[in-house]
Amino acid sequence: MRARDPEKRKHDFKEVALGLTEKQAIKEANRCIQCKKPMCITGCPVEINIPAFISAIRDEDITGGLAIIRKYNMLPAICGRVCPQENQCQGKCVLGKKKTPISIGALERFVADYEMKKGLSQKTKMSRSNGHRVAVIGAGPAGLTVAADLARHGYKITIFEALHEAGGVLTYGIPEFRLPQKIIDREVEYVKSLGVEIKLNWVIGRTQTVDELFGEGYKAVFVGVGAGSPRYMNIPGENLNNVYFASEYLTRVNLLKANQFPKYDTPVKRGKQVAVVGAGNVAMDAARTAARLGAEKVYIVYRRTRTEMPARLEEVEHAHEEGIELLFLSSPKEIIGDERGHVKAIRCDAMKLCEPDASGRKRPECSGDEFILEVDQVLMAIGQASNPILTKSVKGLKLWGAGYIEVDEEGRTNLPGIFAGGDIATGAATVISAMGAGKRAARAIDDYVMGRKKAKSKEPELAESKK
Ligand code: FAD
Ligand code: SF4
User: Fold this and answer.
1) Which domains does the chain have, with CATH numbers?
2) pTM for the full model?
3) What are the pLDDT digits (tens) for 322-334?
4) Which candidate, 43, 62, 196, 346, has a CA 20 to 30 Å from the CA of 80?
């Protein structure tokens, strides 16, 4: 996919990847051999009929292609940009065995952007109102999906969102240069156009409790509050000035516009030499943001090697092109401060890789050597944890691991009428897996409210595009 020049783009927050042209998209679609047993579908968590939408592009019926995608996925412009396709649909494409797999994500993005560029809007088939109200807690991908699916089936939905903007991590975590806010706004507007009400600045567990929602007549509650709490390494020096939890750092910039301080109220410290600890998408986003805030040198400090990096391939490549230095087999063991309590260096163990651990990845072990890296800022991106505000406020709610909500395959919790999905049920995962969980939960909520003993099997709703 075309991308902006790294030397120019690393100084601004404009989108980096430029997408495919129509000519490129049709050419790429023509490479698809239309497998009889398409493996790519099994790789997609929401099972988009990928060969069918690619075939529509091949026939130059772009809006037809979009209508096919929208049957399964209501956020194609977002998923086309941020899904880790190399581990999902594209990873299963048979062409990848010998040559290059079809760029499914790029094609998905192309059809979604085409709709936007041409000023088309979606016409969605809606069921008549059934008079039932359902509350959705959290306006991230999981909550938005549940809300849209149930609204289309005739439910009156209210989403309660703690922040002052909807979108969840899409809005506060993923930077503009990867996912422009106007795309998220458009998808949120679409959900609202289905009749969904979104109450912002509304923290369930504080502003109101789940019991109170049932008391107000909501028949069921879906919890999609994500996993946004910090996780630290618990090493000396993590309390020093200029150590940030990467998600907080990104929230300051993305949601609170700290990059435009003092025009906006929230400041952020701009490091000159920055170490980002971790190697997932959060780490890549934090590193590339630090570069855009003026850092002269940004290091990714990771205890394994490039092969084990969990970040999307494209993000790693883009970060590398922008001059971010990847330090592998390095594990921080102390952050060193100066006399004023500000970060001045980070001490790391040099690691070696041993036999694979439970995750299937090779286990890192100290090699016995250590080194010191002189930096003035450290961004911790070693994962997120569940936030207990809501979970602690619901009596008897069964949790697992580090406070995640225990659910069955369809998102049912141990409490009647309470459903959950997305990162709060799985731990930090992906946008599309949160949406998949939302879709399954919407079906289970419908069965629950309608009092069906046997689940009703439903085909995805039809969505059409029109001028
Ligand atoms: P969230 O997106 O976290 O949304 C939860 C919402 O609930 C939030 O808006 C929150 O404010 C709200 N909330 C929380 N508590 C309450 C409460 N008590 N009351 C009311 N509202 C509440 N995934 C990818 O697939 N590709 C990527 O490239 C990618 N990059 C990422 C980059 C970053 C920086 C981060 C942090 C994550 C990234 N992810 C990526 C992961 C992905 O964004 C998440 O897996 C996904 O957003 C989870 O969706 P969710 O709906 O479960 O939760
Ligand atoms: Fe691939 Fe994600 Fe699109 Fe599914 S939604 S086809 S995983 S890009």
Assistant:
1) 2-117 (1.10.1060.10), 133-228+386-449 (3.50.50.60), 232-384 (3.50.50.60)
2) 0.92
3) 999 999 999 999 9
4) 196
